[in-house]
Structure formats: structure tokens, C-alpha cells
Amino acid sequence: MARIESHPGGASLVAERSAVSNGRSWLALIDAVLGAAVEIPVAILVAAEIVILFAGVIARFVLHQPLVWSDELASILFLWLAMLGAVVAFRRNEHMRMTAIVSRTSPETRAFLDLFATGAALAFLLLIAWPAFEYAQEETFITTPALEITNAWRAAALPVGIGLMAIFALLRLSRVGSIRTVATAIAAVAAIIAAFWLAESLFRQLGNLNLVVFFVGVVAMSVLAGVPIAFAFGLAIFGYLTLTTHTPLMVLVGRMDEGMSHLILLAVPLFVFLGLLIEMTGMARAMVAFLASLLGHVRGGLHYVLVGAMYLVSGISGAKAADMAAVAPVLFPEMKARGAKPGDLVALLSATGAQTETIPPSLVLITIGSVTGVSIAALFTGGLLPGVVLAITLCLVVWWRYRNEDLSHVKRASRREIGRAFVVAVPAIALPFVIRAAVVEGVATATEVSTIGIVYAIVIGLIVYRQFDWTKLKPMLVDTACLSGAILLIIGTATGMAWGLTQSGFSRSLAASMSGLPGGAITFMAVSIVAFVILGSVLEGIPAIVLFGPLLFPIARAVGIHEVHYAMVVILAMGIGLFAPPFGVGYYAACAIGRVEPAEGMKPILGYMFALLIGTIIVAAVPWISIGFLS
Asked: pLDDT tens across 563-578, in order?
């Protein structure tokens, strides 16, 4: 019989561990209750936005009695949706971040870096909390024109969302990791902030070198350490404004508000929800099944299907995250079953995100039209063929990589099977044309058109495909808010950073130097490609366009480049930067949707990015590809 010996102080040790366990269970309960308290209203907000905007379309186009308050109410609710969605993403730890380096460290180092990232995010939230509160207070003096209520009802979303994220950060730090590791991580964050604070007098002497210190150095080190992208941007611009300028920090909150709450961006959550909806109703599956019946028997066939499906689905959505969310879950399981590596799949998914940036109704196209005055209808027409050119270059890489794929177990579809798949897919394939027609004919704005797509998808799902699981509706609404909040918070902090660059004079210096380049249009186009690849990786698409579009498009006209042609080239170049690691946030969105570690796709994506660059050069060299079909 085994002998059991008592350990001195064993009872107290057990009691201590039990107390810690009980304490953490209480914290878990608080986290769950508070999480539900956020998820329920954020789901209601997404549904409310859909109803309000669709009601506006019906009232204006059918009843000819516009709802003058609909856009204003939608704007108020949108900022709440963005901030509470960011809270949900923070609680779920789904804010976009780079883990290529973190994932290669030892378990102890990884645990420390995860806590360090949470501590850094918490630091930004605590630093920006009071300016956000002051900003909301200032908005009490502004009355909205249609509803005639104080604008503080909208602005209050900023301090509330920031406060809730700070609470969830504290809960995570209290529940995860040992006390010693948590204390070390917090101490490291505090030490770095203190060091920067003490060096304030030095920074004020550096002038524009501070742009390199903060917007390159701080961002790069934060991102590589695993700090979520949005908070890395936030820390960089907060540090730059605090330590090198005398700008009130409330101005930064205002720029974040402006970046997140632009009404055009309301299309992001609505198109994200549409992407989830066409997946749930079986519409995406029907489109992919038709393409697979045509190409599934070819070596690399499903990879060609992925490229084609992203092209088609991009005509339904306007947000790349929504496009990828619609296609990846349908194709990835079968592609993995055929032996494809997850890293290669997510690399191609990310590359197709860049390839389809010009496919209408692209949010970037809409933004370019709004800030430069270029016709959105012309941009929509000019964006179709460049996407085809880049699709061809990607398919050449797919052909090379999968030329020896074993398809002995794959059966070729008969003509009857292909025909049946086409008939089933027709209602789904019609959706992109319904959306384009609604925009071109003036039935709905680029933002409202997503609601027409949502209603169409619901009707087709219920009546035609008879696949509509009502139990999935709430999780889909919450997931929509979560992904949208993560994207919009990045756009908000990137807009703040872009504003900081503007105030420094960097954007004007860049425009001046580019306008004086020797070689005329060819050199200007080449430098623009390089510049927008970099800007796309650093600033994200829409903030980069908002910042540099009004400066560079007049120069393009002056050197003889057609504005639609120039728009296509800079969008494609920006897409390469946006979806290329290590800084491209679109790449991390693709990894999150594909549920693949970012490190796995780093090597496979190089070939695809090179193909995209070749395709972009072809589009730049042949203007007809962009403007050949313009009237």
C-alpha cells in the first residue's frame, strides 16, 4: 500500500490555490456577463442599421417621400456599432495582430508577449480615455440638424467603448498568466512609456525625424511584438502628438471619430453581414459548386475556383473581409482534403483580396470618387478588366505550383451535372448584377445597396435554396459587429496617423517631390506604384486614399495620365501593400478568416505578390485595360 506523506504548509498551499481558482472563476463570470451585455445591443445595432437604410431606399425610390432623418440616425448608431464591435473583438482577442515572430518563441516568452500586447493596448486605452471624454463633452454644444438632439449621444460611444475595452483588458490580465508574468509585462510597458516621456526634450529637437521614430520605429516594434495593429497605430500617433507637438489630444479623438464614422464605411458591416448571409443561405456554395464542376478536375482547379469566386463575390460585397469570409469556409475544407497546405491557401486568399480591389462596388473606388471628384460610374466600369489581368497572373503561379497535383481520386463532372449546377447557381450569380444595377440606376447609394443585397439573399435563401437557420442569426450579427469593429478601429487610428502626417508637412513634401520627377508620366507612375505599396501597408487603403488622393490625382492629370487609369494603378499597388505581410492588415484578416497562423503563409505569398506586381505593371503600361470601355 502506498504511503502518503503530508507536506509542511500543504493545507495552506491548497487553500491559497483554491482561493486563486475561486477568484478567477468570479472574474470569468464577470467577463461572461459583461460580454453578453455588450453582444446583445451590438447585434441589435447591426439589425437596426439594415432596417433604417432599407426603409430609406423604399421611402425614396418607391414612395417618393425621403426620410430626412435616416442617414443621421444611421450615422449615430454606426459609431456605437463600431466601438461596441471593437469591444467584442477585444474580448474575443480577435483584433488583427502579427504573430509571425511571437509564434516562434518559447511558451514562456509567448505568454509574456501576449500579456505585453494586452498591457500596451491597455496603456493606449487609459491614455486616450480622458481626451475621449472631453471630446464627448464638447459635442454637447452641437445639435444634429434633422433629429435636433445633442451630438453627445453619438460621441459618447467613444469613451464608453474605450472604457469597456479597458475593463476587458484588466479582466484578461487578471485571469491569464501568473502574477509574476503579468507584473513583468506591465512593468515593461510602463518602463517604455516612461523612457519616451523622459526623452520629450530630445524628440522636440529632432523635427521630421520623429516621423521615422514614431510612424516607423514605434509601429514596427509594436506590430512585431504582437500588439494589435489598431493599438500600435494609436500608440504611435499618441506619442507623436504628445511628445513632439502642442496639439490637444482631443483633436486626435476627433480624427479617429471622423475616420470611423464616415457614412461610406457603413457599407463595411452591412457587406460583412451579406457575406455571412450568402454563406449561410447556400448562395456562395451554389456559385462555388458551379465553378468547381467546371474546373474541379483540373490540376490546381479549386485554386482557380478560389480566384474566380473572389472575383464574383467581390461584385456582391464591397469589403474584402466579407468577400473572404464568404468564399474561404466553402472551399478550404475540400482544398485541404486534396492536400493543399493551409499556408498556401491563406496566401492565395490574401492575394485575391488584393487582385479584386478594383471590382465594384469596392469601398476604395467609392472613396476615390468622393475625395477626388472622379466619376464613380467610370471607376466602376474601369475596375472590371484590371481584376481579370491580375487573376491571370495569379492563375499562372497556381498552374506552376500545382502542375503535378495528383487528381486520380477526383471525378470529372458530366455536362448534365455542370448544367444542373449552373441552374442552381443562377439566383446566386444574379446577385452581383442586382447590386450593380441598383447603384448604376440610382435606386440606392453605394452604402444602401448592401441592404438590397441582404433582402435579396434572405428571400432567395428562404424561397429558392430553403436554407435559413434562424438560430444562427444572432451569432452572425455579433460576428459582423466584431469583424467590423476590428477593421473600423484600425481605420480610425490610421486616420489619426494620416492626419499627423498631414500636419507635419510630409504629404505636401511628397507631392512636391513627385511632381518634380524627371521622365514625366512613366517615372511618376513607377514612383506612385512604389509609394502606394508602402502606403497601403502602413496606412491601410481608405486613409491612404483620403490623405494622398487629392494631392496626387491633379499631378497625374498634369503629366497626361487619365484619372481612371491612375486610380486603377494606385488601387492595385495599394492592395499589394495592404495584403502583403508583415505590415499589411488585409493579410491578417485573411489569416483570421481562414483560421491559419500568419507565419504559415509568409513564404507561399511571395510568389503571389510577385505575380500581382507584374499584373499591376501591365495595367500601368496599357491604359486601355482601365479606360477602354469608358464611353
From this structure: 999 999 999 999 898 8
